[in-house]
């Protein structure tokens, strides 16, 4: 009964082949998706975004209050509406990882060498193995001989996007939720991000305010999961998300987020 639209945001995957106008920000990525759903003439009933994508779906609501159907459910997976706080010592820091990848050759001979280099730099094996899923094999068009691997994303653009992700402030739309919009925040129990007490208090305050104004804000916690919620606890994530689809009429979901 449902259709799902899984997008490669600008500078990621196949979208990296499309030259997009700068700046590469949360706002511009959200506008890309809004323009896509308009061109496809679909009306999303559920918006799901993980990490950077969480801020993208919030920005979609902020930029397009009228075009979005009512009711619409928004899921922000392990991302806060405001400033992104760095992890503690010994945890993976995305900004530093992006800078390291920018210093690596654009073409590499093997995935394992990249994994080893990332781990040697101090990042976890799990993150290193996730990063190399964004390497695609290259072959000579005539002989078919392997030429190694190259990245499927635009690292310079992604660096700019991550800086925007760190600083983008979308508390305004959370604390003034349009009527008919239901926002759900999911915090991973072992998140790499710093969920400050201030963030949790503001979301809980927004819960009370939204209910008085005909909207909705709700906080969820996914147990036994780190930041990569879909890999760490997929069953638990599905159980929480499925509440948006039970008893619903046929609709369409836009799923946004950083993906290889």
TrEMBL record:
It comes from the Eukaryota. Keywords: Hydrolase. Residues 5-238 form the AB hydrolase-1 domain. The keyword Hydrolase applies. InterPro entries: AB_hydrolase_1, AB_hydrolase_fold, Serine_prot/Carboxylest_S33. Belongs to the peptidase S33 family. This is AB hydrolase-1 domain-containing protein.
């Amino acid at each position: 009964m449902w259709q799902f639209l899984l997008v490669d945001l600008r500078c990621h995957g196949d979208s990296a082949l499309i030259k997009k106008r700068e700046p590469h920000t949360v706002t511009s990525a959200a506008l890309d998706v809004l323009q896509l759903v308009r061109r496809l003439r679909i009306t999303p009933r559920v918006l799901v975004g993980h990490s950077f994508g969480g801020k993208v779906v919030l920005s979609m609501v902020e930029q397009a209050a009228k075009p979005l159907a009512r009711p619409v459910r928004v899921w922000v997976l392990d991302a806060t509406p405001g400033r992104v706080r760095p992890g503690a010592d010994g945890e993976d820091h995305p900004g530093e990882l992006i800078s390291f990848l920018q210093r690596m050759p654009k073409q590499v001979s093997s995935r394992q060498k990249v994994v080893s280099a990332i781990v040697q730099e101090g990042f976890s094996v799990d993150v290193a193995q996730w990063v190399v899923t964004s390497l695609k094999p290259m072959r000579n068009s005539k002989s078919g001989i392997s030429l190694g691997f190259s990245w499927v994303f635009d690292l310079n653009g992604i660096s700019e996007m991550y800086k925007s992700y760190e600083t983008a402030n979308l508390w305004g739309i959370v604390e003034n939720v349009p009527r008919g919009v239901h926002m759900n925040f999911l915090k991973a129990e072992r998140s790499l991000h710093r969920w400050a007490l201030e963030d949790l208090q503001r979301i809980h305050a927004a819960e009370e305010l939204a209910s008085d104004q005909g909207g909705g804000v709700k906080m969820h916690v996914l147990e036994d999961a780190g930041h990569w919620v879909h890999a760490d606890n997929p069953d638990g994530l599905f159980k929480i998300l499925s509440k948006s689809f039970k008893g619903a009429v046929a609709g369409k979901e836009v799923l946004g987020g950083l993906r290889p």
